[in-house]
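Example 3.
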Amino acid sequence: MIQAAPLASTAAIAESASEKSLLRFITCGSVDDGKSTLIGRLLYDTKLIFDDQLAALEKDSKKYGTTGPAIDLALLVDGLEAEREQGITIDVAYRYFATAKRTFIVADTPGHEQFTRNMATGASTAGLAILLVDARKGVLTQTKRHSFICSLLGIKNIVVAVNKIDLVDYSHVVFAEIEQAYREFAAPLGFEHITSIPMSALNGDNVSTLSERMPWYNGPTLIEHLEEVDVDSDLTAGPFRFPVQWVNRPDLNFRGFSGSIASGRVRPGDDIVVASSGKTSKVTRIVTYDGDLPVAEAGDSVTITLADEVDISRGDVLAPVADRPEVANQFSAKLIWMEEERLFPGRSYLLKLATRTVPATVTALKHKIDVNTLDELAAKTLGLNEIAEVNIETGTAIAFDPYSENRDTGAFILIDRETNATAGAGMIMHGLRRATNIHRHHLSVDKEARARLKRQKPAVLWFTGLSGSGKSTIADIVEKKLSVRGQHTMLLDGDNIRHGLSKDLGFTDADRVENIRRVGEVAKLFVEAGTLVICCFISPFEAERSLVRGLVEDGEFIEVFVDTPVELCIERDPKGLYKRAIAGEIPNFTGVSSPYERPENAELTLPTEEDTAEALADRVIALLIERGILDAE
Amino acid sequence: MSSGLSTHLKRLEAESIHIIREVAAEFRNPVMLYSIGKDSSVMLHLAMKAFYPSKPPFPLLHVDTTWKFRDMITFRDETAKQLGIDLIVHINEDGVKRGISPIASGSNVHTQVMKTESLRQALDKYGFDAAFGGARRDEEKSRAKERVFSFRTANHAWDPRNQRPELWRLYNTRVKQGESIRVFPISNWTELDVWQYVQAENIPVVPLYFAAMRPVVKRDGTLIMRDDERLPLLPGETPEMRLVRFRTLGCYPLTGAIESDATSLDDIIAEMLASTTSERQGRLIDSDEAGSMEKKKREGYF
């Protein structure tokens, strides 16, 4: 029977409204654990059940109820006719209630095995999970299954609601045993807080009022805990991430980028980079209907304008220059399959991540995970409600963060291209780097022929120097000057090589060697194409620079040493890399934890402290004229 | 965002704006269903915010049953004009010719023909592939399980057992020719949220929400306002002037008034907090039979 008095006074709800925060949580448990009854109890105790709904409930209780003459609170939340008749909840339902301190959105999710996808759905937006455990039965397989899915979806706060405690005579021993068993089981799942509360949802014990029948319990009631628990995932403290939703162009004078801030903060004046293209600019305004903002943060929906005409469209991600998301077309992920139609590796799906949609395939199904035992099992395909660890390849590179760092930029769905069904939900673990096959083609038009057509002499302009020494800046000016002179050029740098050709490589000495070898081979191909190829690489080792020199003909390799003292590079730190390297976050960082060998026989040395980038670029042009690569004007 | 909003209203506002923009960005031909009520007013206000300084890149559609309160129609036309947004008004002319009305045909047939079928006509006529609605999950049981992006077949039917899972804020917007999606940007708002937002943002609403002396008759315990001469009086019945207001707005013969002296937003919010009946209690069409909302929704009702 309904007993407890309504908890929240309506005046209190209204008064404190301006301070109120929002908590989203899910409830997990099986049909018999009393989950719907608990939600009905929360709604009733917070005065969210109205007279007309109560009247309908009384009518329904007689027809469908399972509580005899008492009102069946569970019927209040079991929505659809079909499931009412079956006496089970078949889908995710959302409920709303408020107390003086907080407003709550509850995702009511089903407990049956075949409905894993619904639980994952509810958990995806939740900051806390209530796991219902029947005091008579203790921690069951399904409790473990639900815990695993909560952990998978990144929930850090768990409430173990030990329900039906009245049926075990309010036994402290039973409660303590269940609490202990759960903590042991959950230890590897990475939850930050586990709170166990003994309760009777049916009678209201310890839901909103502390039960007199359990004097041994001195923890909070469920409501008290939900009001107080801190679930701020600290997204605001993370790096700025802004997936562009919509390009806002009311007229020719305004071009803004509308979207929701996924993490971090942004202010006018901030330097930003478009993650996928590497183009940079500066934030000029944060525009809203209510006026421009001095700062906006995670969760805000705003429109940003930039200082430069940068090519940006829906799906691009804006980020700080010094703290960018990963950009790759291959990554590993955990995947939950949600469709009857099985997943087959190699089949093409559409992948939607934040505001970007691209074609994608699962390239490897590494193993599936048994949700009951957490065992890893070999699998060729994946069926409904199965979970696996997979590798995914997208048609074009996309910007992302690991799911553990950011739900918005680390989560994706897979859409069946034939039926448009939402077939899978994934959580990115990390990017992948893999080698590609190289095919050698026989060529019948030679280097001289190609160069003649371009009316120029090919060469490699090799810029070496520390990170932040000014290589790219000078090289960029040199390329512009060459372009003005009608020269066909190509620029190779860490950005376009590391994200593509060498994406499988790290920064160990061995990988650096291999990286430069590859760049050398590519530069050679460009020379054979008759092109003036400009290379900007730290290339710290003399041996590799010599190796590249040896790949092309004598006189075709021009080594330009951009000579900037490491102290000055640290001071400039344009990408924030030194700061991180010094903090120990980036291992093997040249100049900090890895050596740089000064060139012994560079064709040209540019001391950046002596002159401007423009003047230094002129020195390069002068050298090219002197060497007969360019004609004097 | 507006400084006067509480944290949770700011979150709800930002979430709704995100949803509205997703639709504009991904659909070919969206439309916003505008029912003139408080929820529609909030939704329209959110759309104005979502695209600022641009105007919302879609028109409004009002499915007019010809039995709306006169105040609603006046408010509708003024709002569209003031905001400079295209307004499409659709009336099921076939239904009008057949003489369908809530009085002659009963609430069920009237709603089916003049609302549900009329809406389907309008969506087909203009080829809209997405339609915003102002429904909230806290309104009614079957709404609680509705998706934010709710898929409809080419026949506009809703299959509650075959809904697309909806995770994070990743909305699957893919539809084939003829199929469409109903989008509910204020799904997660409660009635109280809506009124507090109306107040904080100073959003205009139809005067019928505020108490005034109005001519009403009492039928089966419900106060019905006689908005025009079309409502026939039963033998011995005389409209009397009472101080009443409406919690929800629909076709006037099907919408019960409540006795109230709430003449301001403060009064309304205070009254609502003290209320012991739910918002849709005044809606005669919901209580026809058990699960009636679910049935209507399966057939294409919003």
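Chain B touches chain A through 64 residues (CB under 8 Å). The first helix of chain B runs from residue 7 to 26.
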